[in-house]
Design brief:
The protein is α/β, with parallel strands linked by helices. The chain folds into two domains: 150 residues, Quinone Oxidoreductase, Chain A, domain 1, CATH 3.90.180; 154 residues, 3-Layer(aba) Sandwich (Rossmann fold), CATH 3.40.50.720. It has nine helices and 15 strands. α2 packs across α3. It is globular and about 60 Å long. Bound molecules: NADPH dihydro-nicotinamide-adenine-dinucleotide phosphate. NADPH dihydro-nicotinamide-adenine-dinucleotide phosphate binds next to α2, α3 and α6. The site of NADPH dihydro-nicotinamide-adenine-dinucleotide phosphate has 30 residues, from α2, α3 and α6. One of its GO terms (molecular function) is oxidoreductase activity. Its EC number is 1.-.-.-. Keywords: Oxidoreductase. It is an enzyme of class 1 (oxidoreductase).
């Protein structure tokens, strides 16, 4: 049972000394449990937080333990009445080939409904994050301008498409020209700006002639500084993530911009609200209904970036924190 364990907490970018591949024991299943063979492991930015000992909204992974993560797999052996060998399931199986779970923790997936990989993508946690962050906090109105960062990623691509369905002008921010082209051509964003360009702010300003009403914040850093200058009165900012800072080892250099930031919040009556998708678990049924229909009829499209082999997971995770992924990042751990 190939596994990746958190051998040592990282400082800065995690590497193979922090996340070690090993051949672990094969688990066996007891009453009410199911043995699952992983097909896809979802790699997500929140995992960087789980590697750290810093206090957060969820417990850290212990040193020496298998890294946690959502998985899509197939039942190999079942001692749980409602699941049978061969069933596909959504699990929290971690970075390993085989895992044992309590049967009641698993959700059966029907490959006839949608490709099973989407259970950890557009129809799963990242899609749900986009849906609730926008609906519950962003509350975009037709004709307003919505900006989303990490626009080509798992969450960002969905945010932009939902905002388009709501009749908004949608402007993406991403770190590569091909990503920007993709969100405009494949997802119908009105514009997308590369934050690595020297004239990023000027391009963003030109793309938002009526200012910014909703900023779906995924990254922080210099992107946030630029969008901040364009907020309209009463703009809403769902604070979903701040990936530009996940590997920070020091406080950013001065000057201290906090007083100016607070001034803008007051003068423009801005609404900043941090959220974790599970805060809105009561919206799951609405999400399932709407997103399944949008995906089925092509109103929401998605891109997956599938890396083959658990042994490549550490490199792929580094890529996620550097913008190498093109869409929702998955590791193909076993055959589908
Ligand atoms: P993505 O698929 O968007 O991948 C991460 C992307 O972040 C990279 O491709 C890269 O794109 C961008 N990025 C990396 N470093 C930087 C940087 N220094 N500055 C700007 N952009 C950077 O990941 P997800 O869609 O899964 O996650 C997006 C965000 O949403 C993350 O911050 C994540 O933590 C957060 N999140 C929050 C949840 C919640 O409940 N609050 C739930 C799920 C995700 P680029 O090329 O554009 O730089």
């Amino acid at each position: 049972n190939q596994q990746i364990i958190l051998a040592k907490r990282p400082t800065g970018m995690p590497d193979a000394s922090n996340l070690q591949l090993r051949d672990g024991p094969m688990p066996s299943c007891g009453d009410g449990e199911v043995l699952v063979r992983t097909i896809y492991l979802s790699l997500d930015p929140y995992m960087r937080g789980r590697m750290s000992a810093a206090k957060s909204y969820a417990a850290s992974v212990a040193e020496g333990a298998v890294m946690e993560g959502a998985t899509v797999g197939q039942v190999v052996e079942s001692r749980y009445a409602d699941l049978a060998e061969g069933d596909f399931v959504l699990a929290h199986g971690g970075w390993q080939q085989y895992n044992v779970q309590a049967g009641k923790q698993l959700r059966r997936l029907d490959p006839a409904d949608a490709p099973i990989s989407t259970a950890v993508g557009v129809l799963g946690m990242p899609g749900f994050t986009a849906y609730v962050g926008l609906e519950e906090i962003g509350k975009p109105q037709s004709g307003e301008t919505v900006v989303v960062s990490a626009a080509a990623g798992a969450v960002g691509q969905v945010v932009g498409q939902i905002a388009k369905l709501k009749g908004c002008r949608v402007v993406g921010v991403a770190g590569a020209d091909d990503k920007c082209r993709h969100v405009v051509e494949a997802y119908g964003f009105d514009a997308c700006v590369n934050y690595k360009d020297d004239d990023f702010f000027e391009q963003l300003e030109a793309a938002c002639p009526d200012g910014v009403d909703v900023y779906f914040e995924n990254v922080g850093g210099t992107v946030f500084d630029a969008v901040m200058r364009l907020f309209n009165d009463f703009a809403r900012i769902p604070v979903c993530g701040r990936i530009a800072h996940y590997n920070d080892t020091d406080a950013p250099p001065g000057p201290d911009r906090l007083p100016g930031f607070m001034g803008q919040i007051l003068i423009k009556r801005l609404l900043f609200k941090g959220f974790i998708q599970f805060d809105y678990i009561h919206r799951r049924p609405d999400f399932k209904r709407d997103m399944s229909a949008w995906v089925r009829n092509g109103e929401v499209r998605y891109q997956e970036d599938i890396v083959v082999g658990l042994e490549n997971a550490v490199d792929a995770f580094q890529g996620l924190l550097q913008g190498r992924n093109r869409g929702k990042l998955l590791i193909q751990v076993g055959d589908d």
